[in-house]
Every structure is written in C-alpha cells, then in structure tokens.
C-alpha cells in the first residue's frame, strides 16, 4: 500500500458485514466521522457486495478488502471495485497475485523474516498481524532499529485505549481496528454512535 494511503487517517476500520444492506450507511458514518479508509473483510458471503455498494455509492470512501488469502480473493476484490488489498500473511503466490492486480496492497507480516521478504519486493508498507498476540508495541519498537525504512499498520487486538501507544511509534503510520463497528451497533443501525466512535479515532491523528 502506498504510504500516502496509509496516512489518510490514523485508524482504518476493520469491518465484518453479514448484511450488505448496512454497508452504505455504515461507510457514510465512518467517512463523516473522519475515517475515509475502510477495510471490509472477506469473512462473510456479503462482503463482496458490501464493497461493491460502498464503491458505487460513497465516493468519499476509500474501500478495500481484508482477509485476502488467495488469488481468487484478489480477483473477487478487483471485480467488486476494491481500491486496496489487505492480507493476513504474505506467501509468494499471494504476493504475486496482489501485485498483479494493480491495486494498493498491505501484505500481512508477523516476523522479521516475513518483513524482509515483503521488503525485497520493494514494498515498504505492510500490516503487522496479529499485533497484540505477535508481540505488540514492544516488538514494533524493536523492529524500528534494524528496519527503519518500513512502515506498519498494526491490526489485531488493538483497542481505543491501546491505539495511541502504537501511533506514537515512528514506524507506525496507522492502526487497524474493529472497535469502531461493534456488531451490536451495526445490527441496530446506530450510525450516530458509530460516527462518534469514528470521530474519536480520527482525533488520535
């Protein structure tokens, strides 16, 4: 993923949608709150349609797909109108497909060897996942010494309380979080509350 895209907002909402009908009002609430970059995970049957609707109806949103695991997921994302791809890991075959798509990409890494393998392709922006389980803020702080040119979007277990600590690191451009779109608020259509959560997250920048 280009570093310019990483710097659009301090927090990237990681969204799981069971109902594509919620996609547009949810995206509008996030954008209105100041978070234009939205990752819709490919974990539900509704995901591709949700991306399609956001891309078509919320022009201020920069929507991409997460949990991209296979070349087929890449094709699905491209067809749905995604503007970027986020993967949980980074195998050579998956990286090839992601690069061939022409979209911005944020490959997932959790070890220094994986980070080096991604960097060998000329990619300096990557996801750190699962952030909390893989060493969290202390790990990324230690990585900054030997790998000063890499920028990260840590995702996985990050909360509104822990996000500022990550964002204070020099090698963290933004964080990914699911706390912005709690399933109960999405199910209830409480877009005002989600807009408030987004505004609080946007203020972290």
UniProtKB/TrEMBL annotation:
Listed under subunit, the entry gives:
Homotrimer.
Q: Which CDD domains match?
A: KDPG_aldolase
* Annotated EC: 4.1.2.14
- The organism named in the record is Pseudonocardia kongjuensis
Question: Which keywords appear in this protein's UniProt record, sorted alphabetically?
Answer: Carbohydrate metabolism, Lyase, Schiff base
PROSITE patterns, per database record:
ALDOLASE_KDPG_KHG_1, ALDOLASE_KDPG_KHG_2
Q: Does the keyword Lyase apply?
A: yes
Please give the pathway this protein is involved in.
Answer: Carbohydrate acid metabolism; 2-dehydro-3-deoxy-D-gluconate degradation; D-glyceraldehyde 3-phosphate and pyruvate from 2-dehydro-3-deoxy-D-gluconate: step 2/2
According to its UniProt record, which protein family does this protein belong to?
Belongs to the KHG/KDPG aldolase family.
Q: Which reaction does it catalyse?
A: 2-dehydro-3-deoxy-6-phospho-D-gluconate = D-glyceraldehyde 3-phosphate + pyruvate
Query: Taxonomically, which superkingdom?
Result: Bacteria
In Swiss-Prot or TrEMBL terms, this protein is called: 2-dehydro-3-deoxy-phosphogluconate aldolase
Note one Pfam family from the annotation: Aldolase
């Amino acid at each position: 993923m280009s570093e310019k895209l990483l710097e659009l907002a301090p927090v990237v909402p990681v969204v799981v949608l069971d109902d594509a009908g919620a996609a547009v009002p949810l995206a509008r609430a996030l954008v209105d709150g100041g978070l234009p970059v939205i990752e819709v995970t490919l974990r539900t049957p509704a995901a591709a349609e949700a991306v399609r609707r956001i891309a078509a109806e919320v022009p201020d949103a920069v929507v991409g797909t997460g949990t991209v695991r296979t070349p087929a997921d890449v094709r699905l994302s491209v067809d749905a109108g995604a503007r970027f791809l986020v993967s949980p890991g980074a195998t050579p075959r998956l990286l090839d497909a992601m690069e061939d798509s022409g979209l911005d990409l944020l490959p997932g890494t959790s070890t220094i060897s994986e980070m080096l393998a991604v960097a060998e392709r000329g990619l300096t922006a990557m996801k750190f996942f699962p952030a909390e389980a893989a060493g969290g803020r202390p790990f990324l702080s230690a990585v900054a010494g030997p790998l000063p040119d890499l920028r990260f979007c840590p995702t996985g277990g990050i909360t509104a309380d822990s996000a500022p600590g990550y964002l204070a690191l020099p090698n963290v451009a933004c964080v990914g979080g699911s706390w912005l779109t709690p399933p109960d608020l999405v199910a209830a259509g409480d877009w005002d509350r989600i807009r408030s959560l987004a505004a609080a997250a946007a203020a972290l920048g």
